[in-house]
Design brief:
Number of strands: 8
Largest sheet: 3 strands, mixed
Order of helices and strands: HEHEEHHHEEHHEEHEH
Distance between the termini: 68 Å
Keywords: CBS domain
Strand order of the largest sheet: 1-2-3
Structural class: alpha/beta
Shape: elongated
Protein name: CBS domain-containing protein
Pfam family, one: CBS
Oligomer: single chain
Strand content: 15-25%
InterPro entries: BON_dom, CBS_dom, CBS_dom_sf, Diverse_CBS-Domain, UCP036990_CBS_BON
Number of helices: 9
């Protein structure tokens, strides 16, 4: 099962603001639609994003100052906008969202025109997969496809999205590979590693230290 793409989970009906939308109208949009932010557009191109945090920060900075000109969405938006393309995978979008500490990602086409928006709620839908679905994917893609083992060589247990890998693989270097590959699958919230290996290919080459001792012995009178 390949990773789902942003285009498959994004919301297509996007509440938006223009760069000239007044401050109070942006507030009304957030309140009316019960959302925490909107993309700011100019000719369908995303210029930035206005969040509730941006609005509060703008008001805080104006507190105690003399009246200024009217404030618009362009004055308070966070810019440039952090966007994604619909072909990007959900895990990649989630990592981008976490790394940049944003709550939503405008989705744009090849010409950077807005076609949707992906929120944390949209991305979290992938975690609604059943434990049985996750177990079947780990067995097929990690155990059989990745490690080249028969399906029963590694016991795969899944409970509430937490995967336990228990069994013996051929080489010790395959253990972190299996854990990492499992962790990247959609719906997995944790991995418990109980794998052992038949061969320790991570250890220093055998015989190195004895040869050093032999050389020292040869140098002795």
């Amino acid at each position: 099962m390949p990773s789902r793409t942003v285009g498959e989970v994004m919301s297509r009906n996007v509440v938006r603001a223009a760069r000239t939308t007044p401050f109070k109208e942006v507030v009304r949009l957030l309140d009316r639609h019960r959302i925490s932010g909107v993309p700011v557009l100019d000719d369908d191109k995303v210029l930035g994003v206005v969040s509730g945090t941006d609005l509060v920060r703008a008001q805080a900075h104006r507190a105690g100052r003399r009246p200024a000109r009217a404030v618009t969405a362009a004055d308070v938006m966070s810019s440039p906008a952090i966007t994604v393309h619909p072909e990007q995978t959900v895990p990649d979008a989630a990592r981008l969202m976490e790394r940049r500490r944003v709550e939503r990602l405008p989705v744009v086409d090849e010409e950077d025109r807005l076609i949707g928006i992906a929120t944390r709620r949209d991305l979290l839908r992938v975690f609604l997969r059943t434990d049985d679905d996750i177990r079947d994917q780990v067995t097929a893609e990690v155990v059989v496809g990745g490690l080249g083992l028969r399906s029963g060589a590694v016991r795969v247990l899944v409970r509430d999205g937490v995967v336990t890998l228990d069994g013996r693989v051929e080489r010790r270097s395959q253990v972190p590979e299996a854990v990492h590959a499992t962790w990247r699958l959609e719906g997995v919230v944790g991995v418990v590693n109980a794998l052992t290996a038949r061969v320790d290919d991570c250890a220093p080459p055998s015989g190195h230290e004895p040869r050093a001792r032999l050389r020292r012995s040869a140098a002795d009178p």
